[in-house]
Specification:
Layout (H helix, E strand, L loop, with lengths): L18 H9 L5 E2 L12 H15 L13 H13 L10 E4 L1 H13 L5 E6 L3 H9 L3 E8 L2 E2 L1 H13 L4 E6 L13 H14 L2 E5 L15 H4 L4 E6 L11 E4 L2 H15 L4 H12 L2 H28 L3 E3 L7 E6 L5 H10 L2 E2 L1 E2 L12 E5 L5 H21 L2
Parallel strand pairs: 1-12, 3-4, 3-6, 6-7, 7-8
Antiparallel strand pairs: 2-9, 4-5, 8-9, 10-11, 11-14, 13-14
The structure holds pyridoxal-5'-phosphate.
The site of pyridoxal-5'-phosphate has 13 residues, from α4.
Length: 404
């Protein structure tokens, strides 16, 4: 008998499929309100503008738009990205500091490949972005999880760990952080902590990956500085067009030291040769015409409204059942339930009651956070958010009484 599985390489066992994708599959086509995904609201995609730009790109660039192109990304697109970064608070980028990737997920995948040797220690927030954990795990990283509070990563605790590790003759290779409107918690790192983090990077000689998909969606006047704007040597910055234009275009980028960009270029060549030429030209023109800059405030306003609706619904229905973050931006609220509740075990009940969330333990490198959950407010309508939270509260109430 042919055993196909015996042909699969051993490294696949290090790869984990995203729990979020699995939940999305479970909820598809059912009468379930999904607060689980992390999708932008498609109502706001600039479809008409992109239709017009699409035909312009084909007419203006002809065959060039349909041809292979360079691995780093089209120079004119990288120039537009540098200009966009400049006008949104991260000046001083040059096209040679930038590589275009197929979404920032590919940036994380390539960074994992070019930075992590098996056994290298990577420090991440606890909780942090699940798919980043999976990327680093797949190349054999071991983790230091640093808790977050309302001001983001507890950099003081990171310092304690760095001291201990140093005494043991070990070091951290890099800190991966989503410092602004974090996924999943919605919190942002204070500027003091950002400065402290950079000081530690210098003292203990590590790099920082700043993953920044959400900083354009800040609902409050938060005075934050991107780490990349504070240090161009140690900070590797990645961001994406997924939230500021459209996720289906699969466009992201990395801004980093040219030596890192060179390494990424080789890894990307092996992965996919280059990011689709047509999509790059489309986004470059969208930037040039101000479509992205006009799109951002519209989406921001809509997400702020939805965040407020979710916060109101939580106060109305979940008071006494949970506590939750009040995100200053982004797309998620993170909720902490009674210590005795395991949100993963509770999920089937929630799905039968018609509501889905992501169990929080998926975001913790040490498997803790079993009583937490991530709730998305960008995708569901305001009505669905209200109904979803009401259903969720019923489930938690029932579950809390049945599990005592
Ligand atoms: C923190 C973070 N990083 C990276 C990504 C990947 O985004 P994309 O590949 O669509 O650019 C996401 C998507 O939700 C995210 O939340």
């Amino acid at each position: 008998m042919l055993d196909i599985k015996s042909f699969i390489a051993g490294r696949v066992s290090l790869m984990e499929s995203s729990e979020i994708r699995e939940i999305l599959e479970l909820t598809e086509g059912k009468n379930v309100i999904s607060l689980a995904g992390g999708l932008p609201d498609p109502k706001y995609f600039p479809t008409e503008e992109l239709a017009e730009i699409s035909s312009y790109v084909l007419k203006e660039y002809g065959w060039r738009a349909l041809q292979y192109s360079v691995t780093r990304g089209l120079r004119e697109f990288r120039e537009e990205i540098a200009r966009f970064m400049e006008r949104t608070g991260t000046p001083g980028e040059m096209p040679y500091n930038i590589i275009v990737t197929s979404g920032s997920q590919q940036a994380l995948n390539l960074l994992a490949q070019v930075l992590v040797n098996p056994g290298d220690i990577v420090a991440v927030e606890k909780p942090t972005y699940l798919a980043a954990i999976n990327e680093f795990k797949a190349v054999g990283a071991s983790f230091e999880g640093i808790p977050v509070d309302d001001e983001g990563m507890r950099v003081d605790l990171l310092e304690e760990r760095l001291k201990i590790l140093k005494a043991e003759g070990k070091r951290i290779k890099f800190v991966y952080t989503v410092p602004t409107a974090q996924n999943p918690s919605g919190v942002s790192m204070s500027n003091d902590r950002r400065s402290h983090l950079l000081e530690l990077a210098e003292e203990y000689d590590f790099l920082i990956i700043e993953d920044d998909p959400y900083s354009h969606f800040m609902f409050e006047e938060v005075n934050f500085k991107r780490l990349r704007s504070m240090d161009k040597y140690r900070v590797i910055y990645t961001s994406t067009f997924s939230k500021i234009l459209s996720p289906g275009l699969r466009l992201g980028w990395v801004a980093a030291h040219p030596d890192v960009i060179d390494a990424l270029e080789i890894a990307k060549q092996n992965a996919d040769l280059h990011t689709p030429t047509f999509n790059q030209l489309l986004a470059a023109e969208a930037l040039r015409r101000g479509v992205v800059d006009k799109h951002i405030p519209r989406v921001k306003e809509a997400y702020k409204r939805k965040r407020d609706v979710m916060l109101e619904a939580l106060s109305e229905h979940m008071d006494g059942l949970a506590r939750w973050t009040r995100p200053v931006g982004g797309m998620f609220i993170f909720a902490y339930l009674d210590e005795n509740i395991d949100t993963k075990e509770m999920l089937p009940e929630a799905l039968s009651a018609g509501v889905a969330y992501v169990p929080g333990s998926a975001f913790y490198v040490d498997g803790s956070g079993r009583n937490t959950m991530r709730l998305n407010f960008s995708y569901p309508s305001e009505e669905m958010i209200r109904m979803g939270i009401e259903r969720l509260a019923e489930v938690v109430k029932r579950y809390a009484t049945s599990s005592v």
